[in-house]
Write a structure and sequence with these properties.
NAD(P)-dependent oxidoreductase; oxidoreductase; 4Fe-4S; five-stranded parallel β-sheet; FAD/NAD(P)-binding domain; Fumarate Reductase Iron-sulfur Protein, Chain B, domain 2; 3 domains; iron-sulfur; NADP; alpha/beta
Length: 487
C-alpha cells in the first residue's frame, strides 16, 4: 500500500490563512483572510489523524465527511474533495467562513485534545469550494423530472434556500417568498462582509434562480398574500423565516435617540456595501463615524456590531458584557479579531440606565459578579453593589439576541400553533406544523441558532416534505382513477 499522506500532525504545525494587518483590514469590509494557497491547504489537511471515531464529524450538525475530504485534499484530489463536501452541505464555502469551528468540528478534533492544535478544518473547507467555483466544478442546479406539484418556501435564509435547492432537484416547482429585496436572509443583511463577502452569497442565490427556483422578493406574507392564499397556490408550504425580533433592555432612558437595534445597524451597513441609498447613513442615525459607540451583548451579533463600528470610523468602541470572557457565548476568535482592531471589552458590566436628554450621551453601568450556576449550568451574573460608573456614548447598539416575531398574527393564520417561546410548534417526527401541509424549519422552530443548524434543518425537512408530497400525489391519482371507474 502506498505511503499515507496523513498523520503529519507531529511534524507539521497548525496554520491558518494569514490575516491582513489589523490597521489595514479595519478600514474596509473585505474578508480579513484569503483562502489557503494549494500547498498550505494540502499540508494542513495532511495533519488529520484519520481517527477511528471522527469527533469532528459527529459534532458537525451536518455530519460532514470531514476526515474523508481532508484526505482527498492532502492527496491533491480536490475535485473529489469538493464533491464529497458538497454531498452533505448546500453551502460549504459559507460554513467554512462563518461556522464557529472552535466550538464544533475543530473544538472536538482528536489532535486538539493531544495538544498538537486542531486541523484547521474550516479554512480547508472554504478552500475546497472556493477552488471549485474558480475551476468551474460547481455544477448548475438541474431540476428533476417534473412532478406537477408546487412548493412555497417562506423565507430565503439558509434553511429555506437549502430546501428550495433539494426540492427543485427532485422535480418540484419551487417558489421562495422573502420580505427583503435580496435573498439570503441574515447571510445577506445580518453578517458583515469582513466575515462573509456578499458575492459569495449572491452566487449561491443566482445558481438557484438559474435552476428555475422562482424568487418573490419584497414579498410579505400577511401583506401581499395570506397564508390561505399560498396554501391554495402550492401543494406544500415551508416556513423558514428565522427569528428577527430584537430583545430589549428595561432601563431608564432606553427610548432616547441614538439607542438602536443591532440588526437595524448591521442591515444599514450591508445595504450601503451593496451600493444602496441608505438615508440612515446619510443622517448618521445608523452610522458610527466619529462617535463613542457602546455595544451591549456578548454573542456573535455583538462582535459583528463592534467590528462594523470600527470600520465606520468610530471614535471609540466598547463592548459591555455581564459575564467574563470565559463565559461569553460569542466566538473567542471573533473577540481576538475585535481586540486587534481596537475594540475595548468591558467584562462583568451591565447597563442600568441611559443618560442624556433627547439623545443618548452616556451609559450608566454597574459592575457584575458571577454567583451560583443558573438553570443552564453557567454562573449567573448579579450586580456588585457600589460599583456604578458612567461611560460616554453617542451611539448605543443593543445586541441581546432575537426572539420570534408575532406569529401566528403576522401571517393571519390563527391555526398555526406556537410554543410558549413564540416559536412554531411542529411534530418532530414530520416537521409539520399544526396546519396540514405546512412545515417549518430553522430558527423559527429551534430559536436563534447557527447557520449550519439551519442548513441541517432545511435538509431534514426536505425528506419529510418529499414523503408528504408523494403521498398527496398518490392519493390524488387514486381518487381520479376511482372517479373514472365510477363514471
Amino acid at each position: 500500500m502506498a505511503d499515507t499522506p496523513m498523520l503529519k500532525f507531529v511534524t507539521k504545525g497548525q496554520l491558518y490563512p494569514p490575516k491582513r494587518d489589523a490597521g489595514t483590514r479595519a478600514s474596509d469590509f473585505q474578508e480579513i483572510s484569503s483562502s489557503f494557497p494549494v500547498p498550505d491547504a494540502e499540508e494542513q489537511a495532511s495533519r488529520c489523524s484519520q481517527c477511528g471515531v471522527p469527533y469532528c464529524s459527529t459534532h458537525c450538525p451536518l455530519h460532514n465527511h470531514i476526515p474523508d475530504w481532508l484526505r482527498l485534499t492532502a492527496e491533491g484530489r480536490l475535485r473529489e474533495a469538493y464533491e464529497l463536501s458538497n454531498a452533505t452541505s448546500t453551502m460549504p464555502e459559507i460554513c467554512g467562513r462563518i461556522c464557529p469551528q472552535d466550538r464544533l468540528c475543530e473544538g472536538n478534533c482528536v489532535i486538539e485534545f493531544s495538544g498538537h492544535g486542531a486541523v484547521t478544518i474550516g479554512s480547508v473547507e472554504k478552500f475546497i469550494t472556493d477552488t471549485a467555483w474558480k475551476e468551474g466544478w460547481v455544477e448548475p442546479l438541474v431540476p428533476g423530472q417534473p412532478r406537477g406539484q408546487s412548493v412555497g418556501v417562506i423565507g430565503a435564509g439558509p434553511a429555506g434556500l437549502t430546501t428550495a435547492e433539494y426540492l427543485r432537484a427532485a422535480g418540484y416547482d419551487v417558489h421562495v417568498y422573502d420580505r427583503h429585496d435580496r435573498a439570503g436572509g441574515l447571510l445577506t443583511y445580518g453578517i458583515p462582509g469582513f466575515k462573509l463577502e456578499k458575492d459569495v452569497v449572491m452566487r449561491r442565490v443566482q445558481r438557484l434562480k438559474d435552476g428555475g427556483v422562482v424568487f418573490h422578493e419584497g414579498f410579505e406574507v400577511g401583506r401581499d398574500a395570506s397564508m390561505a392564499d399560498l396554501r391554495k397556490q402550492h401543494d406544500a408550504i415551508l416556513i423558514a423565516t428565522g427569528v428577527y425580533k430584537a430583545r430589549d433592555i428595561r432601563a431608564p432612558g432606553v427610548g432616547a435617540q441614538g439607542i438602536v437595534k443591532a440588526l437595524d445597524f448591521l442591515t444599514a451597513s450591508n445595504r450601503a456595501s451593496f451600493g444602496d441609498d441608505v438615508p440612515e447613513h446619510t443622517d448618521g442615525s445608523l452610522h458610527a463615524a466619529g462617535k463613542h459607540v457602546v455595544v451591549i451583548g456578548g454573542g456573535d451579533t455583538a462582535m459583528d456590531c463592534v467590528r462594523t463600528a470600527i470600520r465606520q470610523g468610530a471614535k471609540s468602541v466598547k463592548c459591555l458584557y455581564r459575564r467574563d470572557r470565559e463565559n461569553m457565548p460569542g466566538s473567542q476568535r471573533e473577540v481576538a479579531n475585535a481586540e486587534e482592531e481596537g475594540v475595548e471589552f468591558v467584562w462583568l458590566s451591565a447597563p442600568i440606565a441611559f443618560e442624556g436628554t433627547g439623545h443618548v450621551t452616556g451609559v450608566k453601568v454597574t459592575g457584575m459578579r458571577l454567583g451560583q450556576p443558573d438553570a443552564s449550568g453557567r454562573r449567573a451574573p448579579e450586580p456588585d453593589p457600589g460599583s456604578e460608573y458612567s461611560i460616554e456614548a453617542d451611539l448605543v447598539i443593543k445586541a441581546l439576541g432575537f426572539d420570534p416575531e408575532d406569529l401566528p398574527t403576522m401571517f393571519g393564520a390563527d391555526e398555526l400553533s406556537v410554543t410558549r417561546w413564540g416559536t412554531l410548534r411542529v411534530d418532530h417526527k414530520t416537521m409539520m406544523t399544526s396546519m396540514d401541509g405546512v412545515f417549518a424549519a430553522g430558527d423559527i422552530v429551534r430559536g436563534a441558532s447557527l447557520v449550519v443548524w439551519a442548513i441541517r434543518d432545511g435538509r431534514d425537512v426536505t425528506d419529510h416534505m418529499h414523503r408528504y408530497l408523494k403521498a398527496k400525489a398518490r392519493a390524488k391519482a387514486s381518487a381520479e382513477g376511482n372517479g373514472r371507474v365510477a363514471a
